[in-house]
TrEMBL record:
<keyword id="KW-1015">Disulfide bond</keyword>
<protein>
    <submittedName>
        <fullName>Uncharacterized protein</fullName>
    </submittedName>
</protein>
<keyword id="KW-0677">Repeat</keyword>
<dbReference type="InterPro" id="IPR036179">
    <property type="entry name" value="Ig-like_dom_sf"/>
</dbReference>
<dbReference type="GO" id="GO:0016020">
    <property type="term" value="C:membrane"/>
</dbReference>
<dbReference type="InterPro" id="IPR003598">
    <property type="entry name" value="Ig_sub2"/>
</dbReference>
<dbReference type="InterPro" id="IPR036116">
    <property type="entry name" value="FN3_sf"/>
</dbReference>
<feature type="domain" description="Fibronectin type-III">
    <location>
        <begin position="120"/>
        <end position="212"/>
    </location>
</feature>
<dbReference type="Pfam" id="PF07679">
    <property type="entry name" value="I-set"/>
</dbReference>
<dbReference type="InterPro" id="IPR007110">
    <property type="entry name" value="Ig-like_dom"/>
</dbReference>
<feature type="domain" description="Ig-like">
    <location>
        <begin position="30"/>
        <end position="101"/>
    </location>
</feature>
<dbReference type="InterPro" id="IPR003961">
    <property type="entry name" value="FN3_dom"/>
</dbReference>
<dbReference type="InterPro" id="IPR013783">
    <property type="entry name" value="Ig-like_fold"/>
</dbReference>
<dbReference type="Pfam" id="PF00041">
    <property type="entry name" value="fn3"/>
</dbReference>
<keyword id="KW-0393">Immunoglobulin domain</keyword>
<dbReference type="InterPro" id="IPR003599">
    <property type="entry name" value="Ig_sub"/>
</dbReference>
<dbReference type="GO" id="GO:0098609">
    <property type="term" value="P:cell-cell adhesion"/>
</dbReference>
Amino acid sequence: LYTCLVYNRFYNNQTSNGSSTTELIVQSRPIIETTYSKIASEIGQSLTLTCRVIGQPKPNIIWKHNDKLIQCDEIINDICYLRFSKILKNDFGIYICIAENLLGKEEWMYTIVSRGKPETPTDILVSEITSTSFKVQFSPSFDGGSGSQRFTIEVTDSSNSSIVTEQIPFNSYEYTIRGLSESTLYLFRIQSTNIYGGSPWSNDIPVQTNELIITSDDLPQLRVISYNSKENYLQF
């Protein structure tokens, strides 16, 4: 709200008689706020899809599934709820939340899938490469609806001999491989597993360890204690 007050030295009464109030409404196209795009369920279970939409004027919200439009079961605090009392076989698939007002249109796609194996980790990065180690970081993908997943990393050398196969600690998305040889090309890959099985392995990623460079700081520090020139004897 903006209020304009009018007064001067003859009229200094800041009351409603000397003011005017205007409401400023900022309009915007719809924006869908969500943190997920895939959800797992089983036949016979209940399930609720949610789609939170902000925008001004208030957007109209509707769902679309297999070219069929579906109304929201309920809208509370800008959140549209689509409820399933019991999931049927035909309920699996893609659902699109569509929000539209005078300024534009926004869509977000959700997928209902059966519980199963997780998906392969993504965004795999390599850093902190030394002559004997390197660090791996990655992002977990959809867990298959199990609620938890574990990760395994496998490292092989250029002859395709397995060097390391290790379980990454639970809820950790980075790991440092140690005990490698200097100036050696390695390949590594990552897999996710849950109670239903394992995901496909990621693509093999090459990593070359660094050459071991010895500097004066790596050498033992010598200090002469005594020297006998007649016997050519040096103690240090």
